[in-house]
Amino acid sequence: MSKSLATVFSGNRLSRLLLTLTVATTIQPVFGLSASSDSGEPANLTYHSNVSEVRLVFFATDEHNHAVEELQNNDFAVVDDEMVIRNFSSFTRADLVKLDLIVLMDSSESMLPLFQQEVADIQQLVSQWPSRPGDRIAVLSFGGMETHLICSGDCRSSFTAERIASLPKGGATPLFDALEVAAKTLIQRKQPDVWPVIILFSDGDDTISKTSLRQALQKIVASEAQVYAVDLNRSERASNGSATLQRIADNSGGRYLGINEGAAGIFHHLLDDLHSARVVTYRLPESGSDFHSIRILPTHNLKLQFRCRSGYYYRSGSAD
């Protein structure tokens, strides 16, 4: 037994784990969103299902953050609400999935000095994306009180300077509201063979959203999307905004990227993940909690690192 799994079994308490991993899970599309709250109270997300299987999308990297090409199903174990799972129903690559990509562009007052660079990076990202049948790309901007659609579908031709110039710019920053809009859009058009992704360009500061960070994270979990958060802060000092972006990326199983990455770096990371993603399925474990936390641990090579979303919502014993 490896040291990492032995730690889990010792005292059966995950709080003793010393290995820090960023992970997450995906519920099969048959798990439907049954309720959410538009009020100021935290949303109570509940899922109902007639099947008992969890579908987990994840990414494996080595100690140099390079994608692991050769990975077997006995190289890792899933820890779902303190239950260690090593018997999987299936384990496959997911590099043939279609992409549903939403780019969120911060056009608020604080971003105006960097706005042209932000636009240039997004234009380059959209123009370089290889057009594949079934892929969908949309670009939204947020600033003031609202989120505005810039383009959807064929963004290569419709993401133009004239279109961008006509949009409102400046004002407050409804970051969490914009994330909720993107997540709800992905939920509404969710399909089992499509990988939902959000690329967020922002400094991470929210000044006016009705949606809380917690509610936005819950919606992202429900959408099954990975968030690639591009930090537009130029300061070398850590900021609250940067910490928020890091949390959003980690919670979703995405990546946190610096402004120095540029469009080429973002494109590289996204394609790497698209071609190296794995999918594992296993029976839903019994739990008294609505929220199942998820971790993935290496069983042999302790230098392996795993990244995906932090958990999923499911209420056992409920019926549709």
Q: Tell me the overall shape.
A: globular
**Quantity of strands, as a count:** 17
Strand order of the largest sheet: 10-9-8-11-12-13
CATH class of the largest domain: Alpha Beta
> What do we call the CATH homologous superfamily of the largest domain?
von Willebrand factor, type A domain
On the 0 to 100 scale, the average pLDDT is: 79
Name the poorly predicted regions.
1-50, 316-320
Q: Estimate the helix proportion, in percent.
A: 25-40%
CATH topology label of the largest domain: Rossmann fold
Structural class call reads alpha+beta
What CATH architecture label of the largest domain applies? 3-Layer(aba) Sandwich
Element-by-element helix/strand order = HEEEEEEEEHEEHHHEHEHEHEEEE
**Whole-number tally of structural domains:** 2
* Distance N to C terminus: 41 Å
Report the major sheet: 6 strands, mixed
Figure out the total of helices. Answer: 8
Strand content: 25-35%
Rg from alpha-carbon coordinates: 20 Å
Summarize the structure.
The protein is 26% helix and 28% strand.
Question: What would your notes on this structure say?
Answer:
The chain has 320 residues and is of the alpha+beta class. It has 2 domains: 127 residues, no CATH class; 178 residues, Rossmann fold (3-Layer(aba) Sandwich). Helix content is 26%, strand content 28%. The protein has 8 helices and 17 strands. A 6-stranded mixed beta sheet has the order 10-9-8-11-12-13, with helices on both faces. Strands 1, 4, 7, 14 and 16 form a 5-stranded antiparallel beta sheet that branches. A 4-stranded antiparallel beta sheet has the order 6-5-15-17. Strand 8, helix 2 and strand 9 form a beta-alpha-beta unit. The longest helix has 15 residues.
